[in-house]
Structure formats: C-alpha cells, structure tokens
Amino acid sequence: MIINHPLLGPRDSEEFVYLGSADLINRPTNWESEEAAEDFYQYLYIRENIAGDNRELWYHEQGDQSWLVVTRCTLTHEIKSVELAQDVSRAQGRSK
Amino acid sequence: MSQINRIDGGLIDQTKSVSFTFNGQILRGYEGDTLASALLANNKHLVGRSFKYHRPRGIVTAGSEEPNAIMEIGHGAYKEPNTRATITQLYNGLEANSQNHRGPLGFDFMAITDFFSPFLSAGFYYKTFMWPKAFWEKFYEPAIRHSAGLGKLSMLEDPDTYDKGFRYCDILIIGAGASGLSAALTAAESGARVILADEDFIMGGRLNSETNEINGMSGSEWAKQAVAKLSAMDNVTLMADTTIFGAYDHGIYGAIENRADEARADSNKPRQVNWRIYTKRTILCAGATERAIAFGNNDRPGIMMASAVRTYLNRFAVATGQSVSVYTNNDDGWQTAKDLTDKGVKVVAVIDSRSIDPVMAIEGAEIFMGTDVTDTKGRRAIKSITLSNGKTINTDTLAVSGGWNPNLHLTCHHRGIPKWNEELATFLPDSSVPVGMSVAGRAKGTMVLADAIVEGHNEGSSVAADLGFKTGDSKPATTASVAYNVSAKWGVPSGKNRAWVDYQNDVTAKDIKLANQEGFKSVEHVKRYTTLGMATDQGKTANVLAIGIMADNMDKSIEDTGTTIFRPPYNPVAMGAFAGRRRGMEFYPTRYTPSHKWSAEQNAIFVEVGMWYRSQWFPQPGETFWRDSVDREVRQTRESVGICDVTTLGKIDIKGADVSEFLNRLYVNAFAKVPVGKTRYGLMLREDGIAMDDGTTARLGENHFVMTTTTANAVSVYRHMQFCHQCLWPDLDVHMISVTEQYAQYAVAGPNSRKLLQKIVDAEHDISNEAFPYMGAGEISICGGIPARLFRISFSGELAYEIAVPTRYGDSLIRVLMEAGEEFNAIPYGTEALGAMRIEKGHAAGPELNGQTSAYDLGMGGMVSGKKDFIGYTLGLREGMQRDDRMQMVGFKPVNKGALLDAGHSMAGAHLVNLRDKPDTFTDQGWISSSIYSPIFGHYIGLGYIKGGHSRKGETVRAVDLVRGQDIEVEICSPHFYDPEGECLRV
Q: Model confidence over B176-235: pLDDT tens digits?
C-alpha cells in the first residue's frame, strides 16, 4: 500500500506501523468522575468492525515519526485521506 | 543418434551446440533451446513419473503452465527440484534429473501404485488408510509420503544469491506478445515511463511460435524489430525473463526476474531479483493458455497441447513425432496440422469433436468430424489412439486443443470474479480488475490476432492519454484476420479408462465425479477434496476443464458452478527471492555496543539481545565453565568494582516547558516535582493497567529530561510517547528524540565505584556522597573536557553509577575505566552477572514484565499515585486488577540450600504447587520467572509469581519442573534478597 503522507508525499506502507482505530485519540478526560471506568472501558475495548471507510492510526516509524490518521476503505484498501494526527486531535478539541 | 527430431530453422542458433545431461546421459541441443525442446529434439518424451500413480509422463506444454516436465536441475547444494523444463533455458553443462521414481525412469518400481488406483481415488487418505488407527502414523503416512512426491531438496543451504529491487513507471505492460508490444509502442511514443515485462527469455509471446505474417514480415521478426525500437528509447525498461506474480494494493506489482545466466558466471550476482514495481497504470496483455480435453488414458507421453506442438515446431525446430494426429474442438487446433504438413511432418489424422465442415484441407491426413478420442495405447510413449467411431489410428504424437483460456489471473488478485463467456467457452476478466489495470488482447478474450494488435495499440495510447501524455499518430500493425470458433468439450465418456484432468496431482474426471457424488458441490470443496489445481502448476491447464466437468456432472451451468479464487503468486516463487539478501547475519542489522571491540579483545562471550550483541561474560584463564566466570564477576563487583556496558538501554532525550507534566501522565508515580539534578525510577502502564516498561528518568535542566527504557522496549516506549503527545495532548510543549545510539553508557558498580570515577571525572565536578547523593544526575566532563552525563543509579544494589559519553568516546571510555580501575581490581561483567545481581536485588525485568502484571502484582502498588490521571490509571483500578489472589511477584529460596546444586540448571520455569498437591493444571499456583545461583548466598534464588504471594511470605511450597524432573521445596520470601534496606546504595 502507499500512504500519501501530508508532509512527505507518497510513502510505502512498509515504513509505517499500524495501531488501530483513530478513536484512540478520544481518550476520556473524566478520570475523577464516576463514569470514568465505563468511559475508559468503552474507549479502549469497544470498536466498530467497519466494512467501508475506517479512520485508523498509522505511525511513520521509519520516517518522520509522525502519527497519521488514515481513512482507508477496509473493503478495497483505497485510501481516501491522510491527515496528521496532531491536527485531527486539535480539531477534535484536544490541547494539553 | 543425436537430435533425431530436429528440423531446419527456428529461433535457435543451430551453429551453437550446447551439451547437457538428462538422468546422466549426455545430450546436445542448441543455443536458444529450452531444456524441454532439447529433450524433444532428442526424442525424449518420457521425462517423469506422476505424483500418485507413478504413470509415465511426457512434456505437455511449452510454457510456465507445464504440469508434467518438472525436474531436478543441478546437483549438490545447487540442486533445484520441481523446475519446469519448458521454461528452463538450456546452457552448457546443465544437469537434469527426472523426479519421483525408484529405479530407472523407464522402469519405476513404484509404478505398482497404478494397479492400486481404485484405493487411491479422491480423498483416499480420509478413507482407505484409517484402519488400524495406529498404522497411520507409523506405516501408511511414511509410505505414502515416500511414494508420492515431488523432487527432493538438497538439504543444504542454498548457495545462490537473491536480491530485491524497486522500479517505478507510469505504465506497466505485462506480456510482450502481439498486443503487449503494440501497447508498449504507443505508450512509449507518448513519452510515458514504460516497463514491459515478459516471462519468456525472448519477447514476442506466441508470435515466436506461430507462422502469422505481420506488416509483411514474419510475426517473430516484427516482434524483434518492435523490441529493438523500444530498447532504444530512454523512457522504456524492458524486463524479459520476468514474471509478474502478483497485483498488490495501490498499483504495486511483484515481479521475479530470472538472471540465472549471470549468476552462473559470477556467484555474487543474484540468480533471481524480486522486484517491486510501482505503477500508475497497468495493461495486462498476458495472452491465453490452451486447455486439454479429458479422454481415456490422455496422459501418455507424446500427448501434448496442440499449441505446444506448434511452438516446438516453429520456434525450436523440433518435430515432436513422425506421424502426428490432432484432436481439437476449435479452429486453432487445425493450425497445428497445417504448420506440421507445411514443414513436411506427416499428419495422420485430424479429429474434431464438432459436427461441422472441415476447417481446412490437411494433405495426407484422415479427417474425422463430430468424433472424439476415447482411448490411447502405449506404455512409455503413445502408439495409437482409439476414436469414438471405433477406429484405431497409429500415431506417435497426439496434439490436443480444448480451446484457449485467457490468462486473467492477475485481474482476480483483488477478488475479481471472472465471468463465463459461452461463445468463447471460457472465462473472461470481469470489470472488477485491480484499480489502475486494464486488459487487452487474448487475456481479454480477443482471440483474433488482428483484433488483439489493434486493441493493444489503442489501449497503450488511451492509457497514456489518461495520464496526461500526448499520444502519437502511429498506426497499428496489420495481419490477416483468422477466425477462432470453438465449441466447449470437457470430458469424453471413456468407460473404464481414466481421463486425467490435473496431470500433476493425478486427478481424473472420475475423481471429480466421485467428489460430486459424495456431496462436494462447491468448486472450492472439490478442489481441496481431490487436490485438483493444488500442485505447483496451480492447475493452469486443468482448472477450467474441471469446472466444465463439474457442471456436466451436476447438470448446472458453468456460471452457477463458479471458479476458485486466483491469488498471488501467479507462478511459484523461490523462497530465497522473498528473503533476498536478508539471510544469515544480514537478516537484520547487527548492532554492536561501543565496547564491542574491546570486549572481543578480552575474549568475551557474546549474546544476542534484541538486535544487539552484548557481552555475556568474560572468561579468564583457568575458568572452564560459564558459572566460574559469572560467579567471579558478581563477587568482585560486590567486593570492589565492576563495569558493564549498558548502552543498549533505550535513551530518550526530552525537552520542553511541559515535560514534567508529560512524564507525570506517563508514569504511575509522581514526576511533576523531580528536582533538577535528580533521577527517579518510574513505572509505565498500558492503558489497560498492565505494566509496560520501567526505567529511570533524570532531570538535567528545568526543561530537559533524559529517560531510560529497557533494551527490549526502547522502540515501543518511544512510539507510545509519540502517540501520547501527538494524539492525546498535542499542545503540550514536549520535544523528544531517541538518543540510544548517540550515547555510550557504562554501569560502574561496587563499593569502589566512586573512587574509580573520581580518577577520571574532571576536578571541578564534585561527586562525593554529599555533593552527588544517591539518585543524583548531572552533566559533567571527564578526562579533561570530554562531555559526559553521570547518574547515580544502581541495578546491582551496590553503590553504583551510570556514565554516558557521546558514542564516539565509547571505546576509549571502557579502556580508560579499566585502566583507572586496575588498582581496585576492577573487572568487566556481562549480562549474566548483571542478571544475577538484579535477581539478588529483586528488580523485575523482562521475565516479570510479561504483559499480564499490574503495578500491584509487582509489589509497586504503593508507588501508584491516586492524585493524577496517567495512562492506565482508571482501568488499573478495576477490581480484577487489584485482587489479592492474583499472581503476585515474590522471591523464592530452596528450603534445602543444596537443592539443584548438582542439577546444572536453576529453578526458572518450574511451576509452584502446594506441598501435598499433585502437580497439574488445576493445582498450579504460579511459576518461577527468573532464577540463578547466587554466589553471595551460596544457593539458588528465584523471582516468580504465585497466587496471593504478597501475603504468603514464609510459606513453603514446591517448585516442580516436570520437564527436567525436579521437585523441590521452596520458601516464599521477599524478592529483595540482597541488602533489602538499600544501605549499600547510599554510602
């Protein structure tokens, strides 16, 4: 597969390490609340098994070490978009 | 008599004789021959024995689809089994041997299996050899494995070299036949970067085997001129003898280039190159493969594909027989008869299963329309055929054509399903080809040569235009239009005679029928039950035929019967080609520590740790056993001072205003307030609360930290930190970089470590106990200005330091340290002594951090902060993570101190059971994870996990090692055997 890195252009997927769903960005912040256990359980373990466009995290380990959010169709392997995870995280309201 | 079947002409050089051997007999061929054509020139039709029944078999095809003529080529370590003679280019000195027979090829002792064939039908191994049960393993299976089979491996290391390569192009054209060359000409004319690949060692495809005229010259001459024109163009890469074996995602193709010639001349050159070709678009012009017809005894040597007979005749100047007959269901078969008579070879009969008018007149041949071949005779070579009209005809070659199947395999590599075409009686590529691929010529079902040329020509220019290249105005080559009519013919009713479908795996029409009768209806099930299409030829001549037979058996349409799925590789690929140069020591990079050279000078024993080579121990004169050295290294370190290279630990340099907050969220314990000049031990969890890694982190400045990780987790911890920063907290001011390889680091441990270091640390840096206490850290200089980092941390439990210098000083530093340590009898110690001392001290390491243990299990529950969020905090609080009956880490010591002293091994791996329990899965209480002989205590000690261990200290249990037959009583104790109060650390 070829991943079109937003900074470096098309790179072979061999250079990357795959982690999993981009939902892993949405780590709960309510560690002190009563719902924390349930929310963290949902965050870590519960995943949609998507047949279609899946947003997933890839790490450019043999490259610039950026984490990317890759939108990939699990049926065809077509890659629809590639974003820097840092940008996605910020766009989702995460900061410090 | 030499080459009695050779005639004049052909695309070989009859002035250049080449000598080779077949089963020890010296034979001759010509340059340009394949092994198969040279064998046929010498009238060697019988070239092997079949897989199951040991039937005599001959050459059937002239291409990579060959099911029968597979041989062992070469000898000794160079021997390669299962090589197809039909695609092996002949060279001087080639040694070929036939496979799968005992005794001479002509009289195979195992041919007796043919008489047992009623017991060897489809799925026989599920049925016949089931009784008595114990016989399977001891008798039946070895016997079957011995008798059925392919070539034998040399069992020696492959001495050949393989390589990998990468190529890039705008347009990849697969197949250099008439349509592929036409496509390449127009694509290349546009200026696009073109790669043209063909599996044959001469480009031209079927044009080299046929007598068609193109543009007023012979087809092969036209192909030669086209190739010459293309090879002169800078934007074209020609890859002959290269098989595209797989279509992968995003326009990436796998290709195997055969460079055997070059490799034979120079053993450092690769025999095969595994190319990865990155393409924007691909045009598949792979042509078509002729299929057989299943009739009685259709597997005798001398029964060949009609197209192969033409190839041997026209390209290799070999007449495969003196009285040839042709059996066909389509017009193309007649061309074989015509070419043979044109070259003066006697054709005795043309048999066409269709009830139509003869396609053409064949001089001197009997013509039978609406007739089939039902049986053949001749044990080692065909002698006669029997027709459905009862007539018997004497013949020495039977050319069979069951029609052509497009080579659409690559179109299916992304799960495309081919669709049936009734008119052509074959499957054609569906529209669901891999993204970027288009198909032209016979591969697409365009069977008429004139049309295929136009199609290739147009496809080449339209694909180039799609990519934005300006196409030229050249015209396609012209040739006479010859019609191709076919009428499906699968199996011929053959009475008691067996009709082979898959030659290589010995699958007959009856086997397929039996499978269907037994309830196997799906093609996929029939394939696996009968093994049809599962041999090294992947059923290239058999699959479509089998589907037709199944459809007939089940009275279903072919569409409803379906096809199996084509997957890479298209042809077998040597494992060596996937490994490339990554063999032996080149499997992955070898990493040496900075002290490697010095350690080698000391005759250190090395051990691979991850990708690193580390010193395991340093034998001294008189030490004959590893423990002699290790025990000495431990004792001397604890008594005076020892030095160990710990460069392999992961080192991560972290800078930024928010680093202390960042670390606070990574570690279970508090890091927010670590003062500058201090080091702190930290434990990291995964988000699920399981221990991930541990190490120390030092604060070198307000905004500057340096972290160490375990050797094994250096990469994954760094990746985790990048994830936490980039994905979870993107605005934290944190910058990090791995400096594992930038710093050489040594542990200097033992009561005299400070005295030793004071000799080399520059005077302005005070490292006295008061100025540089336990857990101190700082940037210093040594030896008159060399920058260094010093950490007062201890893995051994002694007064100890770790000193780091830029890697280029690593070799000097070990030499300087050893010289300065001479007065203290300083010794180097290796990973064994390091491990022994950490177990004595009770530090958890790899065997303890096994992916199942929480901070509480490790006895570090007290370290876990409840006042902050950190990775693993919330899920680590789950009830199940903190239960008291979990496996908890404790120490173990034998009740009888002399236990195992003579056994030659430690307690590691033993399982723990209560005193009166029988050791089994149900009574299992835990295990010993690390154990060594402690030279300090004089007996074995161990770390391990036992249910509820923290509250069982003092209890006696048994450590049972069923594998090594040991069963000893051990006492559960604190893991901190040595200096539990940590007094040594602080002196």
A: 999 999 999 999 999 999 999 999 999 999 999 999 999 999 999 999 999 999 999 999
Which residue in chain B has the smallest CA separation from A73? Answer: B249
Out of 1.10.3470.10, 3.20.20.70, 2.130.10.10, 3.30.2270.10, the CATH code matching A2-91 is 3.30.2270.10
How many independent structural domains does chain B possess? 8
Q: Which residue in chain A has the smallest CA separation from B733?
A: A96
Of B251, B661, B726, the CB nearest to A67: B726
Interface of chain B toward chain A, CB-CB under 8 angstroms: 248-252, 278, 414, 435, 658, 661, 687-688, 715, 719, 722-723, 726-732, 869, 873-875, 877-878
pTM confidence score: 0.91
Same domain, B116 and B72: no
Residue contact A57–B722, C-beta within 8 A: no
Say if residues B348 and B323 touch (Cβ distance below 8 Å).
Answer: yes
Residue B766's CATH number: 3.30.1360.120
**Helix segments in B508-581, DSSP class H:** 509-517, 523-530, 543-554, 558-561, 575-579
What are the chain A neighbours of B880 within 8 Å (beta carbons)?
Answer: none
pLDDT at B119: 64
- Count contacts between A and B (CB, < 8 Å): 80
Question: In which domain, by residue range, is B919 found?
Answer: 877-986
Q: Output DSSP code: residue B305.
A: E
Answer yes or no: is B262 within a domain. yes
CATH code (residue B227): 3.50.50.60
Residues B525 and B673 in one domain: no
Per-residue model confidence (pLDDT) at position B50: 85
| pLDDT of B146 higher than 90 | no
Could you give the CA distance from residue B908 to residue B888 in angstroms, rounded to a whole number? 16
Q: How many CB atoms lie within 10 A of CB B408?
A: 24
Instruction: Residue A31: list chain B partners with CB under 8 A.
Output: 869, 873-874
Most A-contacting residue of B874, B875, B878, B882 (CB-CB within 10 A), to test interface: B874
Q: Name which of A17, A31, A69 to mutate to probe chain B: the one with the most chain B Cβ atoms within 10 A of its Cβ.
A: A31
Indicate whether B377 and B321 sit together in one domain.
yes
All residues of chain A having their beta carbon less than 8 Å from the beta carbon of residue B248 are 1
CA distance to partner chain B, nearest, from residue A47 (Å): 15
Kindly state whether residues B131 and B175 are assigned to the same domain. no
Judgement on whether residues B173 and B269 belong to the same structural domain of the protein: yes
On whether both B837 and B802 belong to a single domain, the answer is yes
Q: What are B569-595's pLDDT values in tens digits?
A: 999 999 999 999 999 888 888 999 999
Say what the pLDDT of residue B142 is: 65
- A12, A66, A94 ranked by CB distance to B729: nearest: A94
Question: Residue A36 is nearest to which of B278, B730, B874, comparing CB atoms?
Answer: B874
| Domain stops at, among B739, B771, B798 | B739
B483 is a domain residue: no
Q: Which residue has the higher pLDDT, B521 or B248?
A: B248
Question: Are A67 and B723 an interchain contact pair (Cβ–Cβ within 8 Å)?
Answer: yes
Q: Are B230 and B236 in contact (CB under 8 A)?
A: yes
B244 and B172 in a common domain: yes
ipTM comes to 0.99
Q: Indicate the pLDDT class of residue B336, thresholds 50, 70 and 90.
A: very high
CA distance linking residue B326 with residue B111, whole number of Å: 29
Asked if the structure places residue B521 within a domain, the reply is yes
Q: Is residue B485 part of a domain?
A: no
* B174, B197 contact by CB (below 8 A): yes
Residue-wise pLDDT for B729-759, tens only, equals 999 999 999 999 999 999 999 999 999 999 9
CB contact under 8 A, B719 and A66: no
Residues B812, B722 share a domain: no
Contacts of residue B306, defined as CB under 8 A and 6 or more positions apart, other chains included, come to B290, B326, B328, B332, B333, B335, B336, B399, B400, B401
Q: Which residues in chain B are contacts of A17 at CB distance < 8 A?
A: 719
Residue A23 burial by Cβ neighbours in a 10 Å radius (0-12, 13-18, 19+) = middle
Q: Which two structure tokens, joined as six digits, stand for B132?
A: 């008595």
**Cis omega (within 30 of 0) for bond into B569:** yes
